[in-house]
């Protein structure tokens, strides 16, 4: 599959955009006219730069409002077109995108429009140029890809074909299966975009909210499957109008874009294997990736900190014990049940405690790392001694280090052997009620949220749950859970509100993130923790009054919840009881008890938690 991307997807100058596309590994680009118009470089210089970078210039776009007009306007439009053909010759380009007329068309007649396309084809042919006609979803008379194809067929000119754009097809709810009926040689170009399911006018949706494949709501693997079956072999290009990508770092966006195409090609290959059988062959080649199953659990979570005292105290109060110190590094291992927390003091000068790494249990770490690398994940450089476990790790978009660890049937981890028992090893403070890490909640930089979702889905095989929004005193927090089907791994990604503008310590400290532990008896554990002096996040009385109104809890239970600062929720399966600790640095802990298969995260309680934490930061 030849890959391409429209320059409109990226921030920066045309020169910067071309460099980013080449760096990310694209075969070619679509030149967006606006990017060229504002460039100080001549068309010849842009052509030379693209050649030097090994990028083909696949499509010049857009040319607008051409067909369905009267004779006088047609003459003007042909004059405009010829100027662009001359420009394209300087660029060394031979394919121009023509959008269906959205403004100036006055004649709603297929024969007329097709004849005008034929005239344009004649003119284009003199310059060795071909025209790819695209139905915009909001076109005046042509807004449906099959209608555009009928006009192309009627025009019956070798230099006139169609451009398919998934946005215009899927946003209108047209059935993409119709793509298979289009003669492959008439599909001159293909653009892909995904989008979140929104209810708004289509033009605004298209111009502001498109995202890369895998970051929205559409089944683009099926869309691409229809295209592959049509016999098309040309470039598959990304055309994403997105307000965030326009401001984000262009190199990162280009890598995110490339990852989406690599992943989509694989998904499409899997889809076609399943529907057409393993012996089916198509002219377009789809590269595949090493297949990996979902991870089976969290292997560890690592917190980096210069001063580890407060963390140690907190973990001890939760019933964790220090199981050892690393033989050669200032690193401690704290465990309870299968929950492992590494406290890492390496290269942590002046660092307040923060979650730095997560380990996932996978079936085959080398294979999983190879997949991640093929998906353009950046490897984490590591120095290990000869007798140490070689661990595979890649960097997530929010810079969390993702370790791919060997899963074992009994949940043990071989690397723990490197931790000798410390001289001051404490016996666990009491009974072990925590069994494992239930979920981890990571704050995402606002401009990398979609990238993070795609990263965890494509590299780790986690699936996105429907996203939610949680009100907090400093903004609305968008939350997206990525999880395995069995819930063994649950990762909640939150977009922190843009800036904490209110004065106070919160504006300096990183947005808090947390690790939630699963426990079999949260009331007992909370009582133990109270006895050990744990500082709980204080929950206001108003919350408990509302709880009573919503759930009619037994008075004794309600009193216990309130006494212990426990929160409560219920779903169609069962009940959820949980509490939060105070925050150290940017880290806090949660302990949860899921009763009878409760499957959520206490979403109605999240605003209460955020408000309580906000109050604490105000008090300093
Ligand atoms: O929004 C637009 O005008 C526009 C322009 C060119 C395209 O290829 C497209 O899909 C939309
Ligand atoms: Mg388009």
From TrEMBL:
InterPro entries: DSD, Glyas_Bleomycin-R_OHBP_Dase, IolE/XylAMocC-like, VOC_core, Xyl_isomerase-like_sf, Xyl_isomerase-like_TIM-brl. It catalyses: 3-dehydroshikimate = 3,4-dihydroxybenzoate + H2O. Mg(2+) binds at residues 439, 514, 590. A divalent metal cation binds at residues 134, 165, 191, 239. PROSITE patterns: VOC. GO terms for molecular function: isomerase activity. It is an enzyme of class 4 (lyase). Residues 436-594 form the VOC domain. The keyword Lyase applies. Pathway: Aromatic compound metabolism; 3,4-dihydroxybenzoate biosynthesis. Keywords: Carbohydrate metabolism, Isomerase, Lyase, Metal-binding. Its cofactor is a divalent metal cation. It comes from the Bacteria. Its EC number is 4.2.1.118. The keyword Metal-binding applies. Belongs to the bacterial two-domain DSD family. Catalyzes the conversion of 3-dehydroshikimate to protocatechuate (3,4-dihydroxybenzoate), a common intermediate of quinate and shikimate degradation pathways. This is 3-dehydroshikimate dehydratase. It comes from Arthrobacter hankyongi.
